[in-house]
Amino acid sequence: MRDIRTDLQDRAKMLEEQIGAAQSQFHTFIEQLRREHQSKLNDLKSDFGTLQRVMKMEDRLVGVLSFSKAPSEPNPPRQLWHQQAQS
After folding, report:
1. Are the CB atoms for 20 and 12 separated by under 8 Å?
2. pLDDT at 5
3. 3-state SS of the chain?
4. Cα–Cα distance between 78 and 62 in angstroms, integer?
5. What tens digit of pLDDT does each residue of 26-64 get?
6. Cα torsion through 9, 11, 17, 18, rounded to 10
7. What is residue 71's predicted lDDT score, i.e. its pLDDT?
8. Cα 28 to Cα 34: distance, rounded to the nearest angstrom
9. Segment (H or E) for 70
10. Quick one: pLDDT at residue 76?
């Protein structure tokens, strides 16, 4: 009977190399996903902060304009204030 231990060891070594390469690709892919996720998250947080600042500014504008009006006049909807502020 022929001794196949050397063939099996060679095959095991080849499989270990393939496993190592697959793990390396996996870790590279995961790191790329993390960077993309962080970038998107930072963009969204920035947009959210900008939106909050605009909303606060609009709330202050509505507050200032409502003080300058006569007390018997009802407050117009927020959309009208937005349209007036743009013009």
Report:
1. no
2. 94
3. CCCCHHHHHHHHHHHHHHHHHHHHHHHHHHHHHHHHHHHHHHHHHHHHHHHHHHHHHHHHHHHHHHHHCCCCCCCCCHHHHHHHHHC
4. 8
5. 999 999 999 999 999 999 999 999 999 999 999 888 887
6. -160
7. 56
8. 10
9. none
10. 56
